[in-house]
Amino acid sequence: MNTLTNNLRAGVVGLAAAVVCVTTLPVRAEQVASKPEAASKQENIGVVSGLAVGAVAGGPVGALFGAAAGAWLGDRYHKQAVAQKGLTADLKKTEGERAQLAGNVSELNGSLARAHDRGEQLTQVVTRTDQVETDVGFRTNDASVSEQSMSPLLKLGALAAAMPDAKVRVSGYADPRGSDELNDALSKRRADAVAAVLATAGLPPDRMIVEAHGKADSTSPEGDLDGYAFERRVTVRIEHVASDSVASR
Question: Do residues 136 and 156 touch, judged by C-beta distance below 8 A?
């Protein structure tokens, strides 16, 4: 009687294991057909465990279906572990990128603050400067800017371009030799040449005031060649529109 009961119990347990395995086998078969891959460690453990439990519960048939059920459960556990590992890696990567972005924003804010401070300091220095100007000299009857005058003019043009409330007055002059018409035209060509250099440095033409004075402001005695050399010039001056003060170089 006991033997019959034990066999019946084993058959019921084996049948139950078979039902579970039959239910899950199509899913496993579909996964294998769609994407063949090597068995994971968890899947191998499930096969061995299912095989042992099935063999005890239902003999050879129970062992077969137990192994299949164990393989499916092990494979499912393996995939969940891989997905969780990938999610953790993605989360760490996102946190690292966020930290790097925050560092870049902080560095950019620091650079902008330093640039703003330097701009304010430059404006204060220029505002305190009064009646300082640069003169560009020219040879007799010539309107070309010399090479040694280029660098100071370019620096002045860049400085003025960075000051939105400033204009640059460009005034051309000539020595007293020759007619008024000749010297007026010559002084205008000299002023235009200097204005072109300032524009190359980034100063817009509408922020320049170009004047031609000819020989009207000449004070050198007749025949004073050294004095004439100083009168063949273009004077460049930065004028602050807001305060009507003048700062030049």
Answer: no
Residue the block writes with tokens 């204009």: 167
Q: Which of 64, 65, 70 is nearest to 50 (CA)?
A: 70
Both tokens of 53, joined, read 């439990």
Q: For residues 160 and 199, is the Cβ–Cβ distance under 8 A? A: no
Could you give the angle at the alpha carbon of 138 between the alpha carbons of 134 and 142, nearest 5°?
A: 145
CA neighbor of 172 nearest in space, from 110, 215, 108, 207: 215
Amino acid sitting at position 179: S
Return d(Cα 79, Cα 66) in angstroms, integer: 20
Query: Could you tell me what percent of the chain has a pLDDT over 90?
Result: 37
Residue 78 sits at φ, ψ, to 5 deg, of -60, -45
Q: Write down the number of H helices and E strands in the chain.
A: 5, 5
The CA distance from 22 to 206, in Å, is: 88
Cβ atoms of 59 and 14 closer than 8 Å:
yes
The three-class DSSP label of residue 199 is helix
Report d(CA 86, CA 223) in Å as an integer: 92
Cα separation, 74 vs 40, whole angstroms = 8
For residue 151, what pLDDT band results from cuts at 50, 70 and 90?
very high
DSSP-assigned letters across all residues of 68-124: HHHHHHHHHHHHHHHHHHHHHHHHHHHHHHHHHHHHHHHHHHHHHHHHHHHHHHHHH
Q: In terms of pLDDT, which residue wins out, 208 or 72?
A: 208
Count how many residues are written for the chain.
249
Residues 6+ apart with CB under 8 A from 27: 72
Structure letter (DSSP) for residue 207:
G
